[in-house]
Amino acid sequence: MKQYEYKIGIVGFGGMGNWHRETIGTIDRIQVAGVFDIDEARMSYAKECKLNTYNSLEDMLADESIDLVLVSTPNHVHKSIAIQAMRAGKHVICEKPVTMNSNDLSEMMMVAEETGRFLTVHQNRRWDEDFLTMKEVFESKKLGEIYRIESRVHGSRGIPGDWRQEKEYGGGMVLDWGVHLLDQILMLMGDTKLKKVYATITNITNQVVDDGFTAHLEFENGPQAIVEVGTSNFISLPRWYMLGQNGTAIIEDWNMDGRMVRAVGKSETDIVPVRTAAGITKTMAPRRDDTISKEKLPLVKSDVRDFYHNVINVLDGKEESKINLPEVMRVMRLMEAIFASARDRNIIDFE
Ligand code: NAD
Fold it and tell me: pTM here?
């Protein structure tokens, strides 16, 4: 029996809209019905790709063969396009950040509820292998009780020279990269409540929107996380650094270079002090090799196309969405707490 083929309309055919086209092209049971973009050059490119194009959003939404709309425009119009699409009877996948604040997201959630349409958000970095590997290390308890996690992305080219530099388009790095890293940390910590948030933002290459931030998060019963995005970092700190009472894990970079070092329970009685210029230290002396074990990380493989496989299964009525809106709302509220903390130099009580 031939299975139903879902048709998706792409609104906003820039870098990410095109990524979705290419990705959808490799997935069974979903195909691109056509594209709408306000930029003529992108519409011409869509035609070159042999895609159907619509003259307006209204034209696309009037196409009854379309089940789903992907919103991959700049952030400021996600809400209005998503709402218009749901009211026209379409399910919606919205690019991240779903919108620019929690009030807007509440409105979108109300329309999803009212229209009975499926609304989800492309939090694709839940499928990042570095994140999944660190989640595996965390859950395996191999490092003992985790007391600190540090998650960073560092670049040195400032903010890309497009709408991401403008406030009214929803620019800035909290909304751009922060939304991924904060989502990952909250996913990793699961049901543990986030109690306190303290954050600073940077304006090194851009005075209008944040070009980076550092968020200090304190979870219930003590675990802490640092989440950081930098765009003027000519030397990058590790992508992940996780500290437990019995060991440490690190992922250095996008190539997944990393390792784990764990204490093996042998006590050290004969610590050889390290000589520094101004004296000696036993506290900071390296461990003897027979008291630790140096291990490879349990690398987790993933396929980012599972985002779409899940969407298809949700529409078939066979699976729950892997990205649900209360989770997305929690991240949105966290981004607002980061802005408020940075503005007022305050520690925010979160949950
Ligand atoms: P982009 O500038 O390359 O593309 C945006 C496109 O939207 C442009 O072609 C523009 O002409 C079009 N557009 C603007 N307003 C429109 C409107 N009202 N109707 C129709 N088209 C409109 O930007 P991008 O990098 O592709 O980012 C698009 C979205 O994807 C953003 O929300 C961004 O945060 C997100 N994104 C997500 C990821 C990810 O990994 N999930 C990566 C990059 C970008």
Answer: 0.97
